[in-house]
């Protein structure tokens, strides 16, 4: 189960039609994994990755990623 403040934030994002993406390193994806546990994750969470060969950040804005 995600932390209460993550659940609240996720619900507010969904209510406002907003999305969020993370580019994490030091936290090893912890924040993104917490949002992925929220019931609204498919509506608010975008996928983000870095291509190692170019070191370019790519954010995939998609609906219903999960």
UniProtKB/TrEMBL annotation:
Pfam families in the record: CinA
UniProt xrefs under InterPro entries: CinA-like_C, CinA_C
SUPFAM superfamilies cross-referenced by the UniProt entry: CinA-like
Superkingdom of origin: Bacteria
All copies of domain CinA C-terminal, residue ranges: 9-50
Stated name of the protein: CinA family protein
